[in-house]
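Recall from the previous lesson that a structure prediction takes nothing but the amino acid sequence as input. Here we apply that procedure to uroporphyrinogen-III C-methyltransferase from Prorocentrum cordatum. The sequence below is the only information supplied.
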Amino acid sequence: MAAPAGAPPAAEAARRGAGAPPRCGAGQKRRAAPQSPAAEPLQPSGLGRVSLVGAGPGDPELLTLKAVRRLEAAEVVLHDALLPEEILAMVPASAELVNVGKRCGMARDRGAQQLEINQLLLSHARRGRSVVRLKCGDPLIFGRGGEELEFLAEHGVAAEVVPGISACLGAAASLQVPLTHRTCGANQVRLLVGQTKAMVLPDLDWAELAQNVHKQSVVFYMGFKSLDTICERLLAHGAPEETPMMLVESATTPHESALAGTVKTLPGLARERPGRGGPVLMFLGHTVAFPQRLEQLSGGRVVKRQRVGDLDES
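The prediction returns the following tokens.
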């Protein structure tokens, strides 16, 4: 029922329902949602805020809004080595940038050791500074975020975690490889690390991996240097030779490249086509062949992932 002409605003509000928010009319802008105070870590007086922030897989457009806000408010940023300049450029010029990055398995290029990183986080927090620990991917997926949270908690410093898109999710989206698919039979996902703290291949249940390769998608992080051994162990425990397998380097970045093969052929293909030295993920399972399926369905047209920048230039 329409409100009578000349009805006061209160009457109109009552007609819509008590507490109902006014609608945005033409030309009016919606107000940004306020940041939730519950998301702020409760910090003892005098200590700065510490945020473990996931920078995502490499494409700056995949950063979360909260990650951007934390970067813009940072006074100190301790960052990984492989982050693109576009992301680091979001940090204020007045902030201190510290590269604490380590490269997988390279003793001569490990950067700051983990204990040193922990001490830096603690030292800056005690000085009352707003500290961001900026990590590739997600802080809590093979990112040592748990170790840093333990250290800070032990020393009385509360920290928040701002999640990021993990590399496997970014690569899967970029290459259009579903990690689960009913028709392919993939009803579970396994994220594994190809190198332990002692820099050796983990003691995995290879028999289980080989037997269930038809019903799961497996992603190895930091396992490229163990590719030959991984494939040998899978084959030795009964994985079918034709099981699809793929290497993805520098996922979601302009340097992204993928090399597809099988458990039997991929090691040889990797030797023939060395990469550019970027971070590499290994995908194993039947969904790895999904891009070829899409190509068949589309009549041979290869689907190209577009970024916002690409659309702006078209």
